[in-house]
User: Fold Phosphomethylpyrimidine synthase from Cyanobacterium stanieri LEGE 03274.
Amino acid sequence: MRTEWIAKRRGQANVSQMHYARQGVITEEMHYVAKRENLPPELIRDEVARGRMIIPANINHPNLEPMCIGIASKCKVNANIGASPNSSNIDEEVDKLHLAVKYGADTLMDLSTGGGNLDEIRTAIINASPIPIGTVPIYQALESVHGNIEDLTAQDFLHIIEKHAQQGVDYMTIHAGILIEHLPLVRNRITGIVSRGGGIIARWMLHHHKQNPLYTHFDDIIEIFKKYDVSFSLGDSLRPGCTHDASDEAQLAELKTLGQLTRRAWEHDVQVMVEGPGHVPMDQIEFNVKKQMEECSEAPFYVLGPLVTDIAPGYDHITSAIGAAMAGWYGTAMLCYVTPKEHLGLPDAEDVRNGLIAYKIAAHAADIARHRPGARDRDDQLSEARYNFDWNRQFELSLDPDRAREYHDETLPADIYKTAEFCSMCGPKFCPMQTKVDADALTELEKFLAREEEAKKQPVA
Amino acid sequence: MRTEWIAKRRGQANVSQMHYARQGVITEEMHYVAKRENLPPELIRDEVARGRMIIPANINHPNLEPMCIGIASKCKVNANIGASPNSSNIDEEVDKLHLAVKYGADTLMDLSTGGGNLDEIRTAIINASPIPIGTVPIYQALESVHGNIEDLTAQDFLHIIEKHAQQGVDYMTIHAGILIEHLPLVRNRITGIVSRGGGIIARWMLHHHKQNPLYTHFDDIIEIFKKYDVSFSLGDSLRPGCTHDASDEAQLAELKTLGQLTRRAWEHDVQVMVEGPGHVPMDQIEFNVKKQMEECSEAPFYVLGPLVTDIAPGYDHITSAIGAAMAGWYGTAMLCYVTPKEHLGLPDAEDVRNGLIAYKIAAHAADIARHRPGARDRDDQLSEARYNFDWNRQFELSLDPDRAREYHDETLPADIYKTAEFCSMCGPKFCPMQTKVDADALTELEKFLAREEEAKKQPVA
Assistant:
C-alpha cells in the first residue's frame, strides 16, 4: 500500500506530508495514522498542514508503519540506541531495536558515534524498523574529518545529511539554532554546553569566529529534506545540563532562533519538531512548554526528560519520568527516554526496558491528565480485574506483564492465580481489595438511614 | 537531654508539643528540629501552635531524634514495614528499620498484621528507632477478636490504642472519618474501599447499622493521645483505589469529616496530620492538596503516592513518585512510599531501597520546586563534580552512592575514577561534559563580536 503511494510521489520536488496536507490531500500515511489514533483523517491533515503535528516518514523507509507526533494525538516516547566506538555490532543494534519496539517505543534514534560500519548499521536498523528512525548526522560528519572539529565544513555536513536522507532516516537532529552570539551567555552556567552536537558546533564557532554553518546553510538542508520527506528535529544545543542552568538566557536565546528556523522550514512545507531540555525544576516545566509553543508557533515539542533533580545518578529514569510526565501533561508531543545508566555508562537491555517503561508511564499519565478520549480505558479495565482478583487479566493489561508476573510469583506460586483473593503483601486476611460492599447490604443501609432521617423529623412526644 | 525534658513533663495532664507551643514555650524538641531544618525555633513553635506542623514525639520514645512534618519545613518521606502472619521475626523487622533509616526514611510505619508477637516486635522497633514510629492499631484490635469484625467494640479499640501509646508509638492512623452515611457513596466506584482499616470499619457499620465507633469515641482517643503526646494520622478510609475513583463524592465527604476531627483534636492541643490518596490523575493533584488544606485548616497532609496511572504493576514506585513529587510541590508535608511490589507481593530489602530512593527523589524535587532555602545546594555541588569529572565526589553526593558506583563500574573499571573524562555511555570522544568553553576564548569571541557590531555601524564608504 504505502509502497504504491510512495512510487507515485517519487521524483516530485516536494514529497513531504506537510506539502500534501497544505494542498488539502489526505495521504495514505494520514489515513493510517488517523486509524491508529482514533481521530478523523481531516484533523490529522489539518494539524500537519498547520505544523502542529508531524508524520516522520521518509519515502525511502518502506517498512514503516506511519505514526504522528503532535499535541492533538497521544503523547509519544522515543528510545535511543547506538553503537559506540568500543562496541559496534549490527545484530546487537537490531536486537536493541526489537527490544525497544517490544516495550513500546514510538520512535527510535540511532545515536551511533563510531565503529567504522555506521552506514551498514543504520541501513540494517531502517530496514528492520516499523517505527520512525532518527539520527544526529553531526556525529558521522565528525568521524568523516577524523574527529578534527575545526576541519569541518558545511559541505561535510550536507554530504552526510544527504546520505542519511537517502538511506531512509525519518527525522534528523540538526543543531542549527546555536548562534555565535549565544556563546557568551553560557559563562555563568555550572555545566556549560551538554549537547554533544551543540558542543561540536560551539567549538567550531569559537575556533573560526564564524557563524554556525548549519544555520547559514539551513536552506540547503531544507532542499534535501523536501526530496525525501525528512522531518527536522531542531536540536537544543544550549539545553541545561543541571537544574541550576535551567531556563537561562542562553537556553531562551536559542529557543527564539529555533522558532525562526521552524517557520523557515514551514515556508518550504518541511516538517519540524523542536527538541527541549534536559534538567528543569518542576516549577519551571510549564513555563518551558508554554514558551516553546509561543516561540515555535506550536511546532511539536520533543523533550529529553526533563530531570527534576540532579542528585540521583542510577535513578535518572525516575528523576526524569517525573519531569516527562508533567511536560506531557502541559502539552509536549514526544518524550525522549532516559535510562537508569544516564551519566554513568552505556545502557544494557535491562536498562532499555526500565527506561522505556518509565516513559510509557509518563506518556500515559500525561494522556490521562489531558483527558484524551479513551485514555483511561485500560486503567479502568485493569482496576476492575484487580478488584475481581483476575490476576491473569491484570497482568495482561500491564505495561510490562512479564515483570508483574515475576514479582507476584516470587512469593506466591503461579497456580494460585485462579483462586487467591490476596497477594503476599497483605496476606489472605487483610487484602484491601476484599472489602466488597455488597449492593444489597448497601440498599438495606440506605433504608435504615432514611428511617433514621425520618425519625429525626418527628416531633418529640 | 530529651530524657530530662521528658521527665519534667511526665504526669502532666497534657504533654503535647502543641500544648507547650500554644503556651509560648519552645521545647527541646523544637530547638532540635529548628537546627535540623535550619529554621528559627520561634517559627517551629508558631507552626506547631497553629497546627500547620507536627513533631511526632511520644514521651515514651526516648531514643527518638525529633523531626517535624509541615509545609514550612522540608518534605518528608515515610516507609512502611511490618510482619505478616506468614513471616514475623523481630530481628528481620529491626533490620528493615535500619535499612529504611539508611536510605533516608524520615518516619516509619509498622504495619504488622499478625504473627502473635506484635507487641514484642513493636517494642523492639521503637527502642531501636531514631525516627518516629507510626502504627495502625485497628489491625491488632481485629487480632484481639480473632478476626471477627462484628465482635469489635469501642473498648477493644481504646485498649489497643492505649497500649500502643504507652509503648511509645509516635503517631497512629485512626480511621475516624468514615461515617455510616458515606457508605452509599461508594456504589459507583470500580475498586470500592481500599483502605484496610477503613474496610474493617465499613463492614462493622454495615453489620451493626451503627456509627463508626472511632468517631463516636474520638474524645476518648484524644484523652489518651494527650497523656503521651501521640499525634493523629487521620486515616482516609475512602481514598481512591484507582484513577477512576479519584476525587469522588465519597472521598470528599470523608475529607470534610477529617477537617472537623482535626479541629476537635486541636481544641485539646493534640497534634494532627491527615492522610490522603492514593490513585489520582496528574490534573487532579493540585485540587486534592488545596482541598485538604481548605477542609482541614492546613493540618499537614500525608499522602500515599498518589499513583498517576493504574497500568504499571511492578513499577508503582515510579507511577506514584510522579504523583508524590507533584503533591509535595503543591504543599504536601509527607509522602508515604510505594515499592515496586505494590499490588503484587511483600517487598524485600531491594524493594524497600528502590521505593525509598524514588520517594527521596520526589521529596527533594518538591523542595527544589518550592524554592526552600538551600534545597538545590546539593544538586549544584553534584553538577559541579560531574562537570569536573570528579567521579568520587559525584557518587558521594548521590542519593544512593553504592548504586551509582555499581552502575559506573559495570562497564569501566573503578581505577579510572581519577583520570577518565568520560563514561562508557558516550565514550572518550563524545562526552558532552567535555565541552568546556574556555573563559579566555570567550573573552576573545566577545571582542570579535563587539568589533563586528562596531563595523556594522560604520557608514559604507
Summary: The two ends of chain A are 85 Å apart (CA to CA). Strands of chain A lie at 53-54, 69-70, 76-81, 107-110, 133-135, 171-174, 231-234, 272-276, 301-304, 334-336. Chain A has 20 helices and ten strands. Chain A touches chain B through 116 residues (CB under 8 Å).
